[in-house]
Task: structure prediction
Amino acid sequence: MKLAFDDFRKIMRIRTPLDIGLAIRDRRRKLKLSQAALARKTGVGRQWIVAVEHGKSRAELGLVLRILSVLKLPLTIGPDHRRLVLDDGPDPVDIDAIVNAARDDRT
Amino acid sequence: MKLAFDDFRKIMRIRTPLDIGLAIRDRRRKLKLSQAALARKTGVGRQWIVAVEHGKSRAELGLVLRILSVLKLPLTIGPDHRRLVLDDGPDPVDIDAIVNAARDDRT
DNA sequence: GGGAAAAGTCGTCGATCGCCTACAAGTAAA
DNA sequence: TTTACTTGTAGGCGATCGACGACTTTTCCC
Result:
């Protein structure tokens, strides 16, 4: 069974900041984006991308969520392992809306 | 099909810091932990728990990952929706090890 | 090899972090 | 009511954030 995005089939368990960094880097490269380009799309500094891809543990949660949205990398919680998983609905991904909302979300 | 932990079957897609906060609060209450107790177990201040549960967007990624480990809330990336999911292995969760490692992980 | 783009590093800056102490409101039991 | 517990806030503190500009190193392509 072949999919448009092979990499999309890979499920990765996130345990450390580095796990996220690697996932981000992988995805960024598959999308042919430079760090600078991704930084622009996400609304962060390029150095921040560098740090996060290297596993920066003190990165802001909001920014991390934002970059995952930009990269269309879905994040899920709770679905414990070894279990049949049916998502609870369609995937109304509206990146711009998410990103824009996140922009002013700074509590 | 009944499971030991009903709530564990729920899969939640994380889009915003508040999503994480709600998941944390839910889980904490199911485990009968007070914010203070969870803060102690996680190694953070109680106010941080309060803020995160309310959707603090600038929370540190490392601490968020830590509290998810303490609560045994698995986080996954990439498994896009509506797909059969088979975890890639056992679940060698060793909270103390994870937490301790994270403690000095401050890049 | 040579040149350019990408990636990584450093230092400065204002803003915010997370921790602490303390206080107030709400609940529940005695 | 009194006591105890939980949750939410506020102010102060040292430490660090992330943006930015400038620089060096690495990677890529002709």
About this structure: Chain B touches chain A through 51 residues (CB under 8 Å). Chain B has one domain: 13-103. The CA atoms of residues 41 and 70 of chain B lie 7 Å apart. Residues 34-36, 46-47, 50, 54, 58, 60 of chain B lie near DNA strand D (CB under 10 Å from a C1').
